[in-house]
Amino acid sequence: MNGLDGYLTISALLFAVGLYGVLTRRNAIALLMGVELMINAANINFLAFWRCLYFNSSEPQIFVLIGITIAAAEAAIGLALILNVYRDFGNIEVSHINELNG
Amino acid sequence: MTGFIHWLAWIPLLPLCAAIITGVMALARKSERAAPFITIAATLISLFISAAVLARFLGGTTQNHLEVSFHWLQAGRFSINLGVDLTHLAALMAVLVGLVSSLVQIYSIGYMHGDGGYGRYFAYLALFTASMLGLVVANNLFQLYVCWELVGICSYLLIGFWFHKKSAADAAKKAFVVTRFGDVGFMLGVLILSSFTGSFSYNQVEQTLSKVAIGAIQPPFFSPATFLAVAALLLFAGAVGKSAQFPLHIWLPDAMEGPTPVSALIHAATMVAAGVYMVARLYPIFLLSSFALGVIAWIGAITAFIAATIAIVQTDIKKVLAYSTVSQLGYMMIGLGVGGYVAGVFHLATHAMFKALLFLAAGSVIHAMGTNDLREMGGLHRKMPITSLTCLAGILALAGFPGFAGFWSKDEVLGVALSNGQTLIFVIGVLSAGITAFYSLRLWLMAFSGRPRSASAEHAHEAPAVMTIPLIILAIGALFGGLMNFPHPFIGSLLNPAEHEQINLVAMGLSTAVGLTGLAWAWLLYAKPEMAQDPVERMPVSLYRTFANLWGVDAFFTNGVARWALNIGRMVAWFDRHVVDGAVNGAAWMCGASGRTLRRFTNGQAQFYAAVMIVAILLAVWLVLGAMQPPNLTAAAPTRWAVTTTLGGRAR
Amino acid sequence: MSFLNQNILTWIVLSPFIAALLLIITPPNRGALIRWIALLGAGLTLPLSILVAILYNRQQGGFQFQRDVPWINSLGIQYHVGVDGISVVLVLLTAIIITAGVFASWRVQNRTKEFLALLLFLVSGVFGVFVSLDLFFFFLFYEIAVLPMYLLIGIWGTGRKEYSAMKLTLYLLFGSAFILVGILSLYFVSPQHTFDLLTLQRSGRFSYAFQRIIFLAFYIGFGILAGIWPLHTWSPDGHASAPTAVSMLHAGVLMKLGAYGILRVGVGLLPGGAHTWAFLMGAIATINILYGAFSAMGQTDFKYVVAYSSVSHMGVVMLGIASLNPVGVNGAVMQMFSHGIMTGLFFAVVGLVYEKSHTRDILKMGGFAKRMPGVAVAMTIGGLASFGLPATSGFIAEFMVFWGMWHTFPVLAALSVIGIVLTAVYVLRILQKIFLGPFTEQYHDLADAQKTEWVAITALAALLILVGVMPSPLVNLIRLGLHGFHLNI
Amino acid sequence: MGQSLQSVALMGLGAVVLLSGVLVVQSRNLVHAGYWLLPCFLGVAGLYGLLDASFFFAVQIMLYAGAILVLILFALMLTRDVMNPHIPQNNRWTIPAAVLCLVVGILLVYSVGHSENPSPSAPFHYDITRQIGEALIGKYVLPFEAATLLLLAALVGAVVLARTDRNLPDTAQTAGIASDQGLGMPSPVVEKSSSDPNEIRQEHP
User: Fold this and answer.
1) Which of B276, B570, C258, C451 is the most exposed, having the fewest neighbouring CB atoms within 10 Å of its CB?
2) Chains touching B (3+ CB pairs < 8 Å)
3) β-strand B78-87 against C64-72: which pairing, if any?
4) What is the tens place of the pLDDT at every residue in B316-365?
5) How far is D64 from A30, CA to CA, in rounded Å?
């Protein structure tokens, strides 16, 4: 587990776990948690590549920064939406919010 | 003399104009009474012109034919000019047709008196005469085919004249469809000959074919011999259909549904002879292929024999005569088939005479009695002496009683058959001659001798003058018809002056002997006043049954071919509606069905969508990997690696 | 003279169009006025087309009465109209059929205004196709000719009209997709990027492979309209459910559009393709003839019998075109003309019989000749022409087609000749089942044709005989039109 | 020392992160799931530290652990009464989802394993925060502004969405109830306005 491989493996597994969370959780908020994990995994990747390969350029950092901003914004909006859904539907069970079916 | 040429065109055109005029009158239902006079006048004038031409030929002028033709259609290599070409044969036939047609029309005035479609009847008759003359005088294959079909449709219209009778309408349809079978072959023949030789006119076709015969030109696809045989036999196919030869003879007996004068004109003398005339007119083509002649002879022999046997057991007077016509046509075909060109044509001429006579006589009997059934007739001799005597003349001519017309022509045919070495055909011919003698005398005796067997036979009365005069004229023709070719061979000299057949005494002796035995046997069986049961039925049952159901040919066609064709029709209609249409509707249904299945995928579950997205990404990555990496990195590698690592081993 | 010479074709195309527009603005309750406007609009085309036929000077030949107005220069589209021998004959046919059609639809009661307007739109589309020499306009008029069919059958039809209307339109649009592909590919591959037929014909040397594929596209596209075998099922349904005038136009003229398209665009511009696919076309045509005849035999509905007979006769037309021989193609155009008149007559008779006896099931009919002698005679003449009896136009056309086909594919010609027996069988079958035989009492109130109805059937029947007896004027006219094509002699 | 310590630290932090991630995803009680997020974020922050990204170490702790986690916990608290720990928190398709994630994980790890990646280079002595600052103001000012706009939009959106006294036509009736309660959050027994009311009945414990 030297250097970059290690980081990438960790981020990959974290991404997989986050994905599992998104796909299986009943509760919308838990789903959001899964999404947060996936974003963190992505940030780890960026920084790992930055540290090992492109440490003189600051582009990866900008990416990570933007990533985190997006995560924050997304969490805020997501939770607001969830609360709204909660008020309308009375529950935030993902499988019950299926008004948009064919 | 040249002025005379322009008159030739009027031979077919005059009756045509008469037909059009009377047709319009019939449609407009006005002055139908005048219709017969117009048509008879037209026919008589055209008869006069053709007789004048015939007289000139008999007068021994060097000219062997008079021809006039005009350009009708031009489309690239396809050029047609219609015309009139009166060779000796054509002139003879034109006179014959004109004579018989006018006599029949005169006769019909009496016969059709008071019938609903009076004008329409004469219009059809005139149209028939016009197209028959057009056929006779034609100088090219195209006009021959055109008139051939017109004659067919006239026979359809005339057989189905009383169209409100279902049997008449069926008979008309049957007649037309069966002759149409023959016409398919005829058209193919015309197509082959005209496209190969590049023109329709007879002499051009004959010249080119003679070159083919001597191998100067190589026909496509076939070898010369087969090409000539195929072309000749295809033309003959048309004759088989039109002249009711075996196996397409089934329509002629049913054609008796039409008025009797129609049967006399069309189904005895003229139209059915068209096939024989066509073979005679195009004889140089047939001469080039001995195989074709052989086939013609054999078909003629079979037809003669079968039709004769069937005629024995018929009880309807017109059916007997119909089968006798089929049999006599067989004789003419034998004549032409064995190379006796003059004999065939001579028999055609005499047959036209006495068969028309017999039909008209039968017509006057039916007119008087109101029924065709021989079993209800009997003892009419005293009631209708003229009809009886003229009918006797016709019967003896048909039977080939020495001295009468039939005797000379039939013997000449059999003589040529014997002298040209066709002994088997000769034997069949003689045998049929005997049978012909038997059934002809049987007819006369059942109708005229003995005691009347029914009320209507009791008070039958003689036909009016307008009907008996044509009978008498034709009876004279039947009596002295033989003079046409014996002792001085007028027809022989006319048709091909070169060879003079000498009478083959052996053939004449044999056929006369057999004919007389036939007559005697009929006399023995039928010349009794009382006749409880038709003596013919005492014949061995199996024989009687085969003759009675017309040797199964008719059955084969009606419930065999006809039903089979109709079934195919229904099957194809079903196939079209369910399979071809089904495919179209199926396609429409499939769109709907695929729409419905895909709809189930959008089920509103966000997580399901996420999963589908991930799978799609995986597939895309795998494809890209597959495409980018060298082939060894197939899907197997990652899975193998995954399995080994998860089980603890190291992949590398 | 030059004014007439220049604009006569545009007048022929536009006069029904204008009449249709006029109809739209006339109040619906003025029945008589509507009918007269329609008759005027349609009838005007008859004298004009006869004039065109007479004034077409035989020595010069080629395309005459040309009118070339640039429309969209950037795309190379012009309004370019002109007629050669073939188009003159077909324009004449269309004029005859539409006039007879308007007479035959004198009795249409509900919404006659819209019916006649749509009918006139349709016919102006057909005229447009026969005269236009610009592929763009060719396709435009082609669509105008096809689309009103949906409404005409869907609203005024009988039986399963919606189904048939939908099927017909979808089928034809499916076909026109192929045609559009063909036209656009011609446009892009031709060096000058033009839609003009003449320049394409003169200069367009397309590669052999290109010709083969694009000809196939045209063959399928136009073939659908011409009713080639596997793709023909729309036409019987379409005919059976369409009202009389519409089926007269449909079978009489619309199906000829398909054949004309294959001839003018397919064989005209892509001779290489035509020669490669000639045998396929011939084989399908033979199937058409025999298949159509057999299925006509199996039908029990009068209109379906006539519909399948059209499929069979269009087979003869396609056979003529497949022969690629001057006589064969000439015969094909003659057959188009004669079949157009013949089917027009058939459908007029069917309309009359249906109107008076309210049934089309031939098993229930019988002996109508006693009460309708005039109609019976007209039907008999039509029947005789349909199985190619000499002295009717059907014969000369079929004979030339068989003669021409004999030079290219004798086997197919021999098979197709059998068709004349089958046609005779089913024609005589319906003649006997409907008109001959004992009179069926339940139709006691049958009456013969009235005054206006007489016009349509007598004119068409007389024409059949006239062309049969004297075909040379038409044949010479068509021969002039054939110079442009590369046919094998 | 550095190398082995480095890898040991990496292993440890990795284990922490992954373990807490699994627990976040698996635990029945959502609040526990929320709590397990904290070690996960801190583990990630540690990784950043290992990668000498000190600025991000700080940002991670402050923002993720501080802001987002708290936000999530708030949301959990607000919708707390709906959850019932008895029924399993995962929906029906756990097995197929698990297989799918396994495949994704393995594929990623496989591709990592099979590409030769350099190990982290010599010790790193840059002042990373200055570098980012200059980059943000200098070359990458546009992304910076975009990020700010994004946050603004998110903020305003969240406020609008979460507002209670909106008088939307279809939720008039709920707004009425909510207003008198003052809390802005509807009581659990509220009449659901959407299509299938009976659904809610059976869900409630």
Assistant:
1) C451
2) A, C, D
3) unpaired
4) 888 888 889 989 888 888 888 888 788 888 888 888 888 888 888 888 88
5) 16
ipTM: 0.72
B557, B178 in Cβ contact below 8 A? yes
A102 or A52: which leads in pLDDT: A52
User: Any contact of B with D, at least 3 CB pairs below 8 A?
Assistant: yes
Compare CB distances from C291 to B74, B150, B572 and report the shortest one's residue.
B572
Q: Residue D174's pLDDT band (boundaries 50, 70, 90)? A: very low
| Nearest residue of chain A to residue B601 (CA atoms) | A102
Query: Which residues in chain A touch residue D153, judged by CB atoms under 8 angstroms apart?
Result: 73
Residue reference for tokens 């020499």: C133
**Own/partner long-range contacts of B400-404 (Cβ < 8 Å, ≥24 apart):** B400/B433, B400/B436, B400/B437, B400/B511, B400/B512, B400/B515, B401/B437, B401/B515, B401/B519, B402/B512, B403/B482, B404/B354, B404/B478, B404/B479, B404/B481, B404/B482
pLDDT band at D139 (very low <50, low <70, confident <90, very high): confident
What is the DSSP pairing of strand B65-75 with strand B78-87?
antiparallel
**Helix extents (H) in B290-404:** 290-313, 317-337, 341-369, 380-383, 385-399
| pLDDT score at B642 | 59
Chains B+A touching (3+ CB pairs under 8 Å): yes
List the single residue in A22, A24, A101 with the smallest CB-CB distance to B604: A101
β-bridge mates for residue C134, sequence order: C196
C-beta atoms of D79 and A72 within 8 A:
no
Q: Residue D166 carries which side chain, given as an amino acid letter?
A: R
Structure confidence at residue C359 (pLDDT): 79
- Shortest Cα distance, chain C CAs vs residue B146, angstroms: 5
Nearest to B615 among D93, D100, D113 (CB): D100
Query: Residue D115, SS3?
Result: coil
Judged by phi (left if over 0) then psi (alpha if -120 to 50, else beta), residue B28 lies in alpha
3-state class (DSSP) for residue B219? coil
- Taking the model in full, what pTM does it have? 0.80
- Region label for B488, one of left (φ > 0), alpha (ψ between -120 and 50) or beta (otherwise): beta
**Residues of chain C found within 8 Å of residue B580, distances taken between Cβ atoms:** 230, 232-233
Q: Which residues of A touch D7 (CB under 8 A)?
A: 1-2, 6
Q: Is the pLDDT higher at B550 or at C166?
A: C166
Name residues 581-600 of chain B within 8 A of A (Cβ): 599-600
Give me the mean pLDDT over the A41-55 stretch: 85
Quote the CA–CA distance of C129 and C81 in Å, as a whole number: 9
Cβ neighbours of B326 (radius 10 Å)? 25
Rg (CA), chain C: 21
Are A95 and B600 a contacting pair at CB < 8 A?
no
From CA B251, how far away is CA B244, in angstroms rounded?
Answer: 7
Asked if residue B649 has pLDDT above 70, the reply is no
- How large a percentage of chain B has pLDDT more than 90? 4
| A23 close contact with B: CB closer than 8 A | yes
Cβ distance D161 to A81 less than 8 Å, yes or no, reads yes
Residues in B 621-640 with any Cβ partner in D closer than 8 A = 621, 638
Report which listed range, A4-8, B276-280, C15-19, C432-436, is most confident.
Answer: C15-19
Flag if A24 and B614 touch (Cβ within 8 Å).
no
Question: For the stretch C303-324, what's the b/e string if a residue is b when 16 or more beta carbons lie within 10 angstroms of its beta carbon?
Answer: bbbbbbbbbbbbbbbbbbbbbb
pLDDT at B313 over 80: yes
Task: Kindly report the nearest CA distance between residue B568 and chain D, in angstroms.
Answer: 58
Q: What is chain C's mean pLDDT, rounded?
A: 88
Residues of chain D with pLDDT > 90, as a percent, come to: 15
Determine, for residues A23 and B611 on separate chains, whether the beta-carbon distance falls below 8 Å: yes
Of D91, D96, D106, the CB nearest to B642: D106
